[in-house]
Amino acid sequence: MKLQLTASALLLLTSPAWAQSDYLNGQTPEQVIEQYASDAAPPFVAPKLNIGDNAPELGVTEFVKGAPVGSFENGNVYLIDFWATWCGPCIRSMPHLSELQEKHSGEGLQVVAVDIWENKRTANGSEPIVGDERTELVKEFVKKHDENMRYTVAIDGEQMLEEHWMKAAGQRGIPTAMIIDRAGKVAWIGYGTDSSMGESLDAILAGKHDLKAMRAERLEAMRKEHDGQRAGRLIGTANSMLREGEEKDALSLMAALSAADFKDDAMGLNAMAWNLVDREEVSTKSAELARDMAAKACKLTEWEDSNILDTLAWAHHHLGEHAKAIEIETKAVKHSTSDDQREAMEEVLAKFKKASGGH
After folding, report:
1. Which of 40, 194, 270, 283 has a CA positioned 20 to 30 A from the CA of residue 105?
2. pTM of structure
3. H/E element, 153
4. What is the Cα–Cα distance from 312 to 5, expressed in whole angstroms?
5. Could you read off the pLDDT of 325-357 as tens digits, one per residue?
């Protein structure tokens, strides 16, 4: 079911000048963004470890399953998988790693899964799991998943692997896989969920990989990813200005981003709008900009995304437009995707009804 828009809402969504006239102080969106671009997008720096480099030493605390690896022997190929017990994609990739180990063992392949980044949630946030507690956790996990982990499993040696492998290669997530070729060179770096890993492994096993070309391809991909993250970092810049009380500049930058980088990006628009309304004190200017961005995001998602509808409802609430807030939050409840979300939005709806004087 689509939300029936009022004439005023339609006028808002068809007017292209709201952001520029109200927030950009006579500048174009591009001019506003340029003021902050250098801070948000530092120069690209190539990783210290890349395809074609000699593989670092494999220093681990303990091997908990399979044949230990003291060093990379010439003539063999090694697939190093970085994982953690809490990582869902890591767990889902385990059967595939086992299949690769069994399929290519006769060709000299050894899969080595190295546990890193173990942590637990506490009252103070996330805390690392170290020492004997970590060792026992990993051993219990491997015992439980023994059938799916038919390869060598080890534990990172006090962040040695993280520093010399993951961080050095510029990898920020897991599962990450690195393949070492028969000459001890890093021949592939990527995420274990990457469908190209199997094809690359076949080429490496056959000795048909081109390290120079693969290195250049990865560097170019990393440059593009770096440049593509600029807009997200600019949102972070705007959020920092909000926290520091520089509301006028923050609104100007958000308005510019909404008219340029995120003009057709519902999630980006909603992220900025939510940052504006999710505060103890929300000014009229902030609430109006949040309303306009969230309304545009709702239009892009055909008024069916519960989270975006919720953001828009909060914007109307902060503007004292209680009937509109109730109408849109009711829609958000109808489009909620889980019981927990529905319950949370029903509580918000009750809050809005109370604010309007209703029950």
Report:
1. 194
2. 0.60
3. strand 152-156
4. 13
5. 999 999 999 999 899 899 999 999 999 999 988
